Amino acid sequence: xxxxxxxxxxxxxxxxxxxxxxxxxxxxxxxxxxxxxxxxxxxxxxxxxxxxxxxxxxxxxxxxxxxxxxxxxxxxxxxxxxxxxxxxxxxxxxxxxxxxxxxxxxxxxxxxxxxxxxxxxxxxxxxxxxxxxxxxxxxxxxxxxxxxxxxxxxxxxxxxxxxxxxxxxxxxxxxxxxxxxxxxxxxxxxxxxxxx
Length: 196
Prior knowledge:
Blueprint: H1 2-8, E1 13-14, E2 17-18, H2 21-50, H3 52-70, H4 76-105, H5 112-140, H6 142-162
Antiparallel strand pairs: 1-2
Helix pairs in contact: 1-2, 2-3, 2-4, 3-4, 3-6, 5-6
């Protein structure tokens, strides 16, 4: 995204000012981060209340669409809007996805190996994805690299479409497990009263 911003929008006008490539790259990253942090502030609470799957699917679908069109943008303002929405999609997805992993592992169990494996898988994609996208840019251009990336995100959404909800209500219509506090067996022990 920063490389596309730096090459595609250098010398264009944004709100009446001419911008250079480095400024557009910085603006793209900043606007993406703004969308991300804004969405993160409410997504974890909403996933505790309404379930993980709806927010994960919404985040993935927003990311897939906005990422797929970013490479075809010719207006710097529309490009920055797409960056903002893509960041919001990422922020909507991240906290519920981590919470879904914790739901599957369960309370009171060691989750370090599972969480680290999930993070290493994400890191592998974060390293190999830009390299593969760079090959696509070199052969077919930025537009197709972003379309391919959006397609990969859409595959993730299709996988989550079939996945079961991990944050289930305790009783029908009741609170979900993610909104309940952790209760340890030693905390639930009843102690005899001092006065007899």
